[in-house]
Every structure is written in structure tokens, then in C-alpha cells.
Amino acid sequence: MARRVITTGESKDKVASSTVLKALNVLHVLSELCDQQLDGASVSQISRLSNESPSSVCKHLAAFQKMGLVEQDSHTERYRIGVYSLRLAAIAQKTLNVRDIAAPYLKKIADQFGETVHLVVRDGHQVVYVDKVESSKTIRMHSQIGLRNPMYCTGVGKAILAFSPLSLVDEIAADGFTAYTPSTLVTREDLLRDLEQIRRRGYSIDDGEHESDVRCAAAPIFNHLNEPVASLSISGPKWRINDSLLQEFGLTVHDVALHISRGLGCVQ
Fold first, then answer.
1. What are the tens digits of pLDDT across the range 206-232?
2. Which Gene3D superfamilies does the record associate with it (predicted)?
3. Same domain assignment for residues 80 and 205
């Protein structure tokens, strides 16, 4: 068999790049298997799913094991993701800023509809407005970054609440509801029914529940643990936002929120 000869630096780079990609694919397959089976994965399983020979799989795993990215059970000889991956995940999370990731999306949909777009994060039983793109129209929303509002009567708050544990709803209900407008939901049962609709739709609607003259559609943003940590909304004066446009708002923020969530590591 003829020996393969590498003649240029570029060719060496290509071979090295191919080797790295194959190794990373082995690590990816291992992570997928570990997500499905708590006792880890065997070399044969990884080999079959990665389309790599068992010897190549062992070589890649040995390299990852030296770095702490992979661990091997001495009794079963099965492999699992190592603890060093936790450090990498923690560093990655520090560099992921929902405001930075969301900013270009917020501007894009504000330009598309000409209405005000908000980004909020959850803080206890409230939401905090962390970014805003103003409407291009004369009559605008009277909101500001740093403003806090309740979760149960705002579109942005309900979007997060709908995908949060039931215990959070119970805590908010225990605090009591304030009727900001005649449309505010002021019982646990009514709120739960609305949250169920939000889960089915994928976005929430605030039809004058916090401010009687405002309509809003909002969607949740999820982190790498698939937890709802933020939401974004499109809002405008009630007289300007008919039912058809409100639905279009909802579908748009739902799609945009998915893109932002993926940027935060969500795998939905």
C-alpha cells in the first residue's frame, strides 16, 4: 500500500482539522449517549454512532480523558462526560449575555412593525426591563429600562410564568393579585387557564391587563437548561393593534425567541 505523503503546510492543516473534527464528533456522540443513559457509553456504541473505528474512538477518548473532559468507569469500562466540562460550561455561560444576543433581533422586529419592542428578565416575582427599542410612530409606550412589573398581568411576565414550575404560580397567588385594569386576571384559576393557552400557542397576550390602552404579545427565552429566564414582546396602543396584527406579533416573537434561546445554549 502506498504511503500517504503530505507535501504542503496547507495539506497538514487540512489533515489536522479533519482529525480534530472527528475527535469532536466522538465527544458529541458520547454526550448524546450520556444524556440518554446514566451509566455512560461503551466504545462499541460510540464507534457505531460516530462512524469511527473502535481504535480511533479509544485514541480520541484517551486524549479527552487526559484533559478531564471524559471519564472512564474502572469497573464497567464505560465512558461518560468528565467534570472539566462543567468549568467550560460555566465559562461559556459567563460570556453569554441575553441582552447582547437579543439586541439585533429586537431592532429588526421593531423596524419591521414600527412598534415598541421590550426585553425583560425575571427577578423573583417580577420582571425587569433590560432593553427596549422605541416605536417609530408618534404615540409610543411609556416604559423605561430598569422598570419592574408583576409577572401575572404583563405579557412578558406571563410568557416566563407559563413555562416555570407551578410552585412559582402558587407563590405569586399567595402574595395576592392587584387589579390594575378591569381585564387583569385576579384569581389563580383564571391565571392557570391563561398560562395553559400560552403554552399551547407558544406566546402570551396582554390585552389591556396591566395598562388598559395597551396590547402586547410576548414569548419566553430559555437558557441552556431549558429554563425560561427572559422574554421579549411587541407592544402598542390598543387602537392600533387589531386581532390579526396581534397574532402576527405573537408568531414573530415566538420565532425570534427561539433563535435567541439557541444562542443561549437551549436545545429545544
1. 999 999 999 999 999 999 888 999 999
2. 3.30.450.40, Winged helix-like DNA-binding domain superfamily/Winged helix DNA-binding domain
3. no
- Whether 56 and 136 map to the same domain: the answer is no
Query: Is residue 198 a part of any domain in this protein?
Result: yes
pTM of the model: 0.67
Which three three-digit cell numbers place residue 87?
Answer: 468549568
Torsion of the alpha carbons at 91, 94, 95 and 98, rounded to the nearest 10: 140
**Same domain, residue pair 56 and 79:** yes
Domain assignment present for residue 103? The answer is: yes
Instruction: Name the residue range of residue 53's domain.
Output: 9-92
| 176 and 238 within one domain | yes
Residue 153 and residue 259 share a domain: yes
Cα dihedral sign, 52-55-58-59? negative
Q: Is 116 left (phi over 0), alpha (psi -120 to 50) or beta?
A: beta
Where does the chain show beta strands of DSSP type E?
A: 70-72, 79-81, 116-123, 126-133, 148-150, 204-207, 214-222, 228-237
Q: Name the packing angle between helices 188-201 and 166-175 (round to 10°).
A: 140
Residue pair 240/248 in contact (Cβ under 8 Å)? The answer is no
The helix, strand and coil proportions of the chain, stated in percent and rounded to the nearest 5, come to 50, 20, 30
Give dist(CA 71, CA 81) in Å, integer: 6
Phi, psi dihedral angles at 204 (to 5 degrees)? -105, 160
Alpha-carbon distance 89 to 70, whole Å?
14
H or E, element range at 65: helix 54-67
Q: Which residues contact 94 (CB under 8 A, 6 or more apart)?
A: none
Q: What is the total residue count of the chain?
A: 268
Biggest CA–CA distance in the chain, Å, is: 83
